[in-house]
Fold these 2 entries.
Entry 1:
Amino acid sequence: MRYFYFPGCTLETKAVGFNRSAKDAAGALGVELVTLPEWNCCGATFPLSTDNVLDLAGPARNLVSTAEAGGDTLAVACATCFNVLRRTNHFLRNNPETLEKLNAFLERPQPYAGQVEVRHLLDIFVHDIGLEAIRQCAVPGLRGLRAAAYYGCMLLRPAAEIALDDPERPDIMDQLLAALGAEVVDYPHRGECCGAYLTVKSPEASMPMSYRILSAAERAGAHVLATACPLCQFNLDWLQARLRQQYASYRPLPVLYFTQLMGLAFGLDTSGYGFEQHYVDPRPVLTQAGVLGEVKAP
Amino acid sequence: MPAKTKAHRIGLFVCHCGLNIAGTVDIPQVLDAFKDAPAVLVALDYKYMCSEPGQELIRRKIAEEKLDGIVVAACSPTMHEATFRRNAESAGLNPYRVEIANIREQVSWVHAKDPDAATRKAIEVIRTIIEKVRYDEELLPFTLPVVRRALVIGGGIAGIQAALDIAEAGFPVLLVEREAQLGGRMAQLSGTYLNFESAGDLLAQKLDALRARPEITVLTESEVESLNGYVGNFTVRIRRRGEDQVQEASVGAIVVATGFDLYPMKQLPEYGAGAVPDVISGLEMEALLRPDGPTGGRVLRPSDGRPPKEVVFVQCAGSRDPEHAMPYCSKICCMYTAKQARLFCRQSPDGQAYVFYIDIRSGGKGAEEFVQAAMEEERVLYLRGKVSKIFRDGDKVIVWGADTLSGQQVEIAADLVVLATAVVPRADARDLAQRLRVGTDAHGFFNEAHPKLRPVESLTAGIYLAGAAQGPKDIPETLSQASAAAAKVLSLFSRHELVQEPTIAWVDPELCSACQLCVPACPYEARRPHPWKPLVTVNAALCQGCGACATVCPNKASKLRNYTPEQVLAMVDVLFAPAKAQEGA
């Protein structure tokens, strides 16, 4: 199976471990991710926060490029890029006038008609490859590791446009982790916001939000938290040093990309996964659980 | 016998409807347009034609001018056609030679911004209706016998009350209940608001009365499988669960009283999706409060059987939520939540009850006082705001909500949460509605014929509605509607026969080729091939005069009385070539 793949800015810079592990895990499952030629930034929070049609040109250009390259699907790993691209596509499909304007602006040989499907890797892995194939591929698997799936906002909302899973009781990442052999723990805050950009300006506001998620997962017995969003990963990971100061009983919890866990489960070479760059080093926990061979001295 | 001569002495009566019509349509100009129209002897206007002086004017003109047809240009025929026809009949005119030209709903109201166009359209509408009345036959209504026995579907308190009222007037009633026991939802309730009287005791009184009535036949574990026939003469087939044989019965009227369900908690994932044992529905709370319930009336947690200290009640769980669930207010929850909170506090003096609400809707006698008493006497804490999330944390249930009065987010570690889940129609209400050929609304509640003027009738003659099957309502409101439905049945039963409108279809045997296209076209199953002649026949009692058969008939053999192809074409002719048609006449 072959899909055009949109890495996005963060996966090329701060979250290289996510990018590396996403491609590795896909490869192990027989999924070829072809990086979209000349992809550009999805626009992050800007395109969908104003009424300016031109702001949509950025994300739309990626959709047009996919169509021009002969693709019908654009696979995305980053939850925010996925959210922006998918919602832009949804908007264009439902606003023919805007689509016409954008086509006129982009001046491509073929006008875009909304034919590309923007899909998250979770969706492709679980629905195109299937849980059974993943289970078979999961050697040595994640036996002994208790994992909590964390979805955040971008993978789930707005539900009607994203349509990846039930925003109140998401399950797709839980299913994937279970297929990898992990023991998936139940906790109530899978879809609560981590605080997002508040961390930049007012960490005192995002701290209780991240704390709520991390402490609930930890109390539910999780060894690690799995995510698909670089911003969630950063918040939940970076804030833990402060949380330790603020809350006496706080116990740190490594935060990993779900694809890093796939690489571990599939027995791949994880040396490029950037574990050493995590603020809360996941290696001791992974080793203790028996899913990571050797620990290099930090 | 229908007269074959065309009406040639026609009166036109134009109503102002105050300023409803006259404010937009130029009445003198309209009258002027018909001053010299052929066959129109009289063209008059009046402020309110439906008033007694207006009717009197029509009667006088019928007599003076020996009119043989009249057109009343006024409001929609659904408003006053019957009035004007009755009036004309009393003056000796055949009522089917009275036609309404609707120049209010279809002219003045919709073209209020363009009076010139409205006036022109009014003239055109009247012109076509005059042409229609010229071809109208003088029809005679016919009568059908009434089977004076009623069917009540649903053995809850609504059905019980309707059956009792009908039986007390001396008519036999067939009461069909799906479950093994009568009582419906009321049998599941604890104390009732406003005075905590036991629902079980109240129900028992009604059941005693029911058992004392020999006129009532109760069929439990039974369901209505199909219905045929028409008002005064339905044939119903009833199947008893687990049995092959089907019972057939003739009834003249039907009361639908199938009650309600609650919105499934499974569909409220933000409130735990029904997977948290100590998050229960309002009806489950009733079971805990009921003296004859599983806990003997003590509120105990389903998870561990311990008495809860902190109980959170969440109103509008699935109600008033157009984005996710039901858009409407379920109407009964404000009151029963207050009642449940009070009952809980009375049995747990050290307990605390919280109620999250959007608004308190406590209309009517004593209701507001009852809710106030919950706050003042039982110290129930009312928090105005929605609950965003409910989840389990150890042996507590955490409730996240907003208190919009203090502007604070609220988190309560509760022992028990009661969701006032939305009142919804029975899951299979739509199926039953289809079998009975009555309408339902967008959600599946049975539709009343008119929300204000005919609130207990369905649009199908002879089928009436009672209780929450028609929409959320509490016990006294349900009983009122049930008694009203019974009164409708009894007024039907007070007659031995019913007058049927003669404006129905007939088949011209000379033209019919028995192709039978009309048989499936008829939505009322009123058409049947003749047993031996090459012909299709019409069951006049079933025919509603919709005209579907006339439309499909390739030979124009199937015709609607006073809506014949000749008539319609003549109307079209005067509409598009008025000068030519007038010449021809």
Note: The CA atoms of residues 152 and 192 of chain A lie 6 Å apart.
Entry 2:
Amino acid sequence: MTLDQLGIHHKAIIVCIKGEGILRKRLLEMGLIPGTEVEILRVAPMKDPLVIYIRHYTFTLRKEDASLIEVEEVSHV
Amino acid sequence: MSKKIVLIGNQNCGKTTLFNILTGSFQHIGNFPGVTVEKKTGYIIGSDDELIDLPGIYSLSSYTLEESIAVEYLYHEHIDLIINVVDATCLQRHLYLTMQLRELDIPMILVLNMIDEVKENQNDIDVLKMKEILGLNVIPISASQHLGIDDLLQALKHTQSQKTISHSLYSSQFYQIVSPLYNIIEKKTSIYHLPLHYCLSKVIEGDQSIFSLLHFHQDEKIKVEQMIKEIEKKTQKDRQLFIIETRYQYIDQLEKKCFTMKNAYIHQKSEKIDSILMHHYFGIPIFLFILFLMFYITFYSLGSFLQLFIEKGILFLSNEITNVLLYCNVKGWMISFVSDGLLIGVGSVLSFLPVIILLFFFLSLLEDSGYMARIAFMMDKPLRQIGLSGKAFVPMLMGFGCSVPAIMATRTMSNHRDRLLTVILTPLMSCSARLPIYAMIIGVFFQSKKFAVMIMIYSIGFITLILSSLILGHFVFQGEPSAFLLELPPYRFPTMKNVLLNMKEKAGDFIHKALTIILLSSLIIWFLQSFDLQFRMVEAQDSLLATIGQYLAPFFSPLGLDDWRLSTAFLTGLTAKESVISTLSILTSQFSSLSEALSLLLTPHSAISFLIFSALYMPCIATIAAIKREMNSFVLAIMTVIFQTCIAYCISLLIYQLTLLFL
């Protein structure tokens, strides 16, 4: 599955970042590298963008960009 | 010898706070990623070492405009020492930049900021071990609590600014994999005196500029590319991932050895606040309420009270000065110059000072607390529909008040295209200075439909903005629609000192502008309004300005606005939009009142046209100057003026002709 499909407060492990170019590089550099745990914290009131928690910090990205991130879900809360 | 020291770190890591402490200067600090858009310099207290504060960056690959500024600077200036500031509460991500900076082989001190927050959460960092592993001087501080600053100052004094070549920065496994490549690069870098690891990782990343920097021949280049292909095959990773992962693996190892994380999730408080402020249903209503309150206080209650106060003060001062001048038998034109040109012109603009200060007081609270980033987050989706980013929302909203601070507020936007578009579109938000025009016209023609007409004006402005954004975004500023990657900083309590600093800075900017550009333009208008072609002092209706207005009048006749007095008023509206009404009242002084004059000059149809043109046409001088300054482009400012005036003309024309046909 991809990150945009993950439910709120669900955690997952990043498998790979698809896409190419500068955006992919930036996502990797922000610490979204394979094997890293990521949690969806919330969704904006208008359902986009997402807030994720990764490597002890919080940041937002659009669903469109999140769909480039292949993840494997780990647990339900 | 004095040293050149650079302060560098991720956005929002407390760099600017530290800069202020180290230099004793007073920069405004924001809790919105990307506040330091230009670089700032100062001197470290008690020494002649220069300190440069660069924009916050996440990595050395320059994704945004401000990152490019920082990276360019790092590469092309001779730097003696880097102070790398990292947020100790989220070291993993902040250390990524540290990894890259280390590759540059420039002497560096690593500053762990916000160490107090780490300890509050019962976490701990083994600084000694970190020093040993990284081979860097590591200093824990808390810039906001003034902890560890002396240690840092001592370290700055004693750190050698001699460059050393590091041969081993990563795991042995890394060197095993890259060893053939490493050998080639090492030879080259020792010939051309370039940092080894920097070149190595740039070659692996596939940065083309590095090949020419290292003077690679074509056959060498092919050989190197072949080696990288083998690395990709061996590791089952592409070259980008390989190098980025190498750095993060190193950080993960470091974390295991040096950090004790009892309480891994330390931003729980922020998370709780977010669950209310960004609530699924209440998030946006709460936000709208906060905005309403902010605008109400700024523009209506407190703001307009203070504004009236200043206006009265200026009028009083102007009268007194005129009296003194009269008493001293000063010539008539001199008195007119001082009271009508100088005092009224600059005074009418200065009366906006309280509004500007209040507006920035609230914006500063929003920014410092961390709420601003959340607004951008919540508003991203609706704004994206029209080709803008969520970060454009706050500036646009401020445009309802005054375009000048609104344009200044776009500094927090990182993407250049988004910022450009926002700057150009912001003046379309009907500013508060146009309100007197609406009030006057509506009072004369549409008293019974007051509310509906007001809504109509604002809606036309808003629709124009949306359409312009779509058209400009599609045809003129195509560019990449930038991804919306925004860090949400933890909520922090705004400090009064910081808020006051911000207000002081913005007020200073504004006063400076009032005393330069606006002073000059008021004097020009005064001159044009008081003299004729033979430079004789005349009444307004015979002045140069009236002559120009008469030339312009035919241009406005398709809009139903063919009286020269109307076009002259539009012209003086350039200094400030309030001047439209004041000019009209001067030019129609032979009538018993302005209302009577207006009912003769305009029909209900052309009144609509007048309203729409006033709402949309070119911004005032102060706004044009702000666009020029912020975008550093005179051409762009002029283009905005032409663009808006054309739009205003077309829409007024369309609506006027339609109303003639159907109403």
Note: The first helix of chain B runs from residue 15 to 23.
